[in-house]
């Protein structure tokens, strides 16, 4: 178990008033439906799927923000339901709706976060400058109020805040959404560096196929809350024959496994 950072066992989360009836289809909808997988210590593990596939719900369950209706989530052997405070000390989470004190600057927000993590303010300030520089945030923006920054720049600050705490497990929910191509590459490089330098386990949700292909050791492919496939990016693409001499893509894999075009699978009830 020491080599397993995250274990999801038959995890299910319903939304709605009652379970669906096989007779009329009314009732609760399973946003995550009996999903099981293990994530190894130090692995970059991707959860891939369109909007509505259950990716963000799964992240929230692992972050103890939601409780599973069925199944179990373990983080380094600790139950996310029975030991939430222990799990929260092991993880950090970045999402597309990151919250800040908008009147404060990136530096002020990050220093506040550093003190919550028990970090020395002077040491944290030096590290903050280094992280923000690697993420490509201009020095002229470090002292400006967050409310004057674009959403993409705010997302970089959210990523910096998570990196500052050096968590054992980093949960990244669509971390590069809203970023330009160069900024995406900077964030991806930082994710790789965090794993290499500190052995951090990283679980990444994304609908960006290229990002998942280039960044993740293994991928869990979700469709309508269910686990459609689990393999390395190369292993998934080997399941699909070449198309007119072209090597298959992850989009081809998704179409082959679900019968849906990736973009058209965007309308499910799960989030």
What does this protein look like?
- The protein is of the alpha/beta class and 271 residues long.
- The chain has a single domain, classed as Rossmann fold (3-Layer(aba) Sandwich), CATH 3.40.50.
- It is 34% helix and 24% strand.
- The protein contains 9 helices and 10 strands.
- Strands 6-7-8-3-9-10 form a 6-stranded mixed β-sheet, with helices on both faces. A 4-stranded antiparallel β-sheet has the order 2-1-4-5, covered by helices on one side.
- The C terminus is likely disordered.
Topology:
Layout: E1 4-15, E2 29-40, E3 44-48, H1 55-62, E4 70-75, E5 78-79, H2 84-90, E6 91-94, H3 106-116, H4 121-134, H5 151-164, E7 169-173, H6 181-198, E8 201-206, H7 209-215, E9 218-223, E10 226-231, H8 233-237, H9 250-258
Parallel strand pairs: 3-8, 3-9, 6-7, 7-8
Antiparallel strand pairs: 1-2, 1-4, 4-5, 9-10
Helix pairs in contact: 3-4, 3-5, 4-5
């Amino acid at each position: 178990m020491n080599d397993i950072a995250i274990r999801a066992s038959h995890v299910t989360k319903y939304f709605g008033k009652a379970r669906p009836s096989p007779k009329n289809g009314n009732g609760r909808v399973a946003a995550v439906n009996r999903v099981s997988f293990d994530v190894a210590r130090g692995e970059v593990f991707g959860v891939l799927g369109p909007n509505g596939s259950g990716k963000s719900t799964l992240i929230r369950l692992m972050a103890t923000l939601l409780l599973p209706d069925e199944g179990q989530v373990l983080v380094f052997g600790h139950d996310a339901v029975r030991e939430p405070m222990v799990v929260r000390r092991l993880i950090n989470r970045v999402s597309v709706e990151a919250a800040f004190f908008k009147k404060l600057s990136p530096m002020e927000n990050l220093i506040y976060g550093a003190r919550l993590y028990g970090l020395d303010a002077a040491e944290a300030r030096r590290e903050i400058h280094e992280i923000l520089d690697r993420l490509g945030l201009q020095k002229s923006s470090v002292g400006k109020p967050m409310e004057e920054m674009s959403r993409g720049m705010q997302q970089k600050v959210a990523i910096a805040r998570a990196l500052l705490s050096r968590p054992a497990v980093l949960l990244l929910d669509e971390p590069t959404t809203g970023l330009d191509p160069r900024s995406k590459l900077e964030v991806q490089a930082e994710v790789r560096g965090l794993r290499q330098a500190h052995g951090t386990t990283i679980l990444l949700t994304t609908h960006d196929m290229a990002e998942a292909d280039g960044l993740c050791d293994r991928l869990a492919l979700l469709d309508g809350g269910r686990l459609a496939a689990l393999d390395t990016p190369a292993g998934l693409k080997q399941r699909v024959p070449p198309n007119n001499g072209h090597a298959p893509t992850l989009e081809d894999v998704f179409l082959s496994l679900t019968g849906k075009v990736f973009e058209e699978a965007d309308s499910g009830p799960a989030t």
